[in-house]
Amino acid sequence: MRSSNPVFSRRGFSRAGGYAGFHTAPQAGYAQGNPYAQNPYAQNPYAQQDLQHGAPPQAPVTTDRMTMDDVVVRSAITLGTVAVGAVLAWALLPVTATSYGLAIGSAIVAFVLAMVQSFKRTPSPALILGYAAFEGVFLGVISEMYNSRWSGAPFQAVLGTMAVSAATLLVYKAGWIRVTARYARVGMAIALAFLAVMAVNLLLVAFGVAEDGGLRSFGPLGALVGIVAIVLGAFFLTLDFKQIEDGIAYGAPRNESWLAAFGLTVTLVWIYLEMLRLVAIFTNND
Fold first, then answer.
1. Which of 150, 258, 269, 279 is the one with CA 20 to 30 A from 50?
2. Euclidean distance between the first and the last CA atom of the chain, given in angstroms as a whole number
3. How far is the C-alpha of 133 from the C-alpha of 213, rounded, in Å?
4. Which of 286, 284, 267 is CA-nearest to residue 164?
């Protein structure tokens, strides 16, 4: 199982191509009328039995298989590591040029660790928790910086992140959003296009072609871009939820729950950072 984050996502549960590209066809052994026939995860190699009579697969009863409790516990550990790193950085590092440099360095280290984990065939708790710790330091410094200029912005961003996550989970569990192959393809295409535009914007700002942050300015255009980014974050959450559901249903190994925690953490960090910028923009406009 791989993260749904557009930077880190390459494959889902498949180790041999699986649903990579979201265009694989159902296997011949699957029964007619199978409700998972159009599911992009239909060829999950962790399936312990063929789908028969339209019924979803049942994971074998074994302590070596991933459960929702495993995902919850490991997500709590990973997010807790991020939170501890952020609190310590906030409390111990004053808002100075040195702390900004440390924040950038921590972000780079976190990115490298995340990329290494993304390309590994098996989850590494050490890499995932290392990513969480360095990401926490980065978030702590950035949050303190925002709070020094826009008092209360980090707290509002946390509440906003929780609200977006809860709303997305509610909509997903209610069945209002179905994660199909088409849904995933279209969403990922939009996400990649968004990242490409942001990369170009960053280069234009770096070379002085675009002023005041360009598309990432603290004005109406920046607010619109931030809203789009948060919507994309919600989209990534739906992919994470679907991967977790299918991992449990198909009997994924227990250690795959670390990758579920990793994917959720990356997505929630994305949403939090965008929410932080959005709160600052709206505070500027007050």
1. 258
2. 44
3. 28
4. 267
Rounded to whole angstroms, the Cα distance separating 206 from 220 reads 21
Q: What is the mean pLDDT of the chain?
A: 81
Burial 157-177 (b: 16+ CB within 10 A, else e): beebbeebbeebeeebeeeeb
- On the CB side of 10, CA atoms within 13 Å amount to 12
The span from the CA of 134 to the CA of 137, in Å, is: 5
Distance CA 41, CA 249 (A): 11
Closest among 117, 139, 140 to 128, alpha carbons compared: 117
pTM of the model: 0.78
How far apart are the C-alpha atoms of 118 and 105, rounded to whole Å?
20
**Which amino acid is residue 220, in one-letter code?**
P
Q: Which two tokens stand for residue 274?
A: 């965008």
Query: pLDDT tens-digit profile of 75-96?
Result: 999 999 999 999 999 988 877 7
The residue with tokens 């390459």 is: 10
Q: How many CA atoms are closer than 13 Å to the CA of 209, on its beta-carbon side?
A: 7
Q: Give the three-state DSSP class for 65.
A: strand
- 219's enclosing H/E stretch is none
d(CA 223, CA 83) in angstroms, rounded, equals 26
Residue 159's contacts (CB-CB under 8 Å, 6 or more residues apart) are none
Instruction: Determine contact, residues 139/272, Cβ cutoff 8 Å.
Output: yes
Tell me the C-alpha distance between 218 and 223, whole Å.
7
Phi, psi dihedral angles at 65 (to 5 degrees): -105, 150
Q: State the Cα–Cα distance between residues 115 and 131, nearest whole angstrom.
A: 10
Three-state secondary structure of 70-88? HHHHHHHHHHHHHHHHHHH
What are the tokens at 42? 């239909």
Q: Helices 220-249 and 68-92 sit at what angle, rounded to 10 degrees? A: 140
Token pair in block for residue 96: 């100075």
And the tokens for 43? 């060829």
